[in-house]
């Protein structure tokens, strides 16, 4: 883990009754599903009750901003985590989807004054994405997103 991410290994004191919303893309679900699993495991390991974790699924990363907005409106969580995997193909589609997801997720955070964590992998290959899930060489981005959310609501 890089020095920039060392703060994510520090203990987190979770607010009693903390509520977390998670929006997850079904596209590339072998990757986003692994992100979701490690994210939930990390939240629970740090004291968030499973009953206080609201998960909503969307078809792809483009739909994540709307799901985050609905989570903010309907469930009033302390933080939201957006999870997905956008893998570059042969067309510029990747760039449009990554930009739209990034901007939309950020807009939800700013509009609701709520931590909305960007746990969306944007990689050039499936191999790069696999390196960023549990057991991968580049860390566990699902767990990292969970810890980021917890630090933000601390």
Describe the model.
The chain is an alpha/beta fold. Helix content is 44%, strand content 19%. It is built from five helices and four strands. The chain has helices at 29-45, 64-75, 93-112, 126-130, 141-153; strands at 20-25, 53-58, 79-87, 116-123. The protein has a four-stranded parallel sheet with strand order 2-1-3-4, with helices on both faces. Helix 1 (29-45) packs across helix 5 and helix 2 packs parallel to helix 3 (93-112).
Provide a quick synopsis of the model:
With 154 residues, the chain is an alpha/beta fold. 44% of the residues lie in helices and 19% in strands. The chain starts with 19 loop residues before the first strand and ends with a helix.
The CATH architecture can be given as 3-Layer(aba) Sandwich
Helix segment tally = 5
The major pleated sheet works out as: 4 strands, parallel
Extended strand count: 4
Q: What is the radius of gyration computed over CA atoms, rounded to a whole number of angstroms?
A: 14 Å
Report the principal-axis shape.
globular
* Count of structural domains: 1
- What integer is the average pLDDT? 92
The low-pLDDT segments are none
What distance separates the N and C termini? 22 Å
Please write the string of helix (H) and strand (E) elements: EHEHEHEHH
| Structural class by secondary-structure content | alpha/beta
Q: Helix amount, in percent?
A: 40-55%
CATH homologous superfamily classification: Lumazine/riboflavin synthase
At CATH level 3, the topology is: Rossmann fold
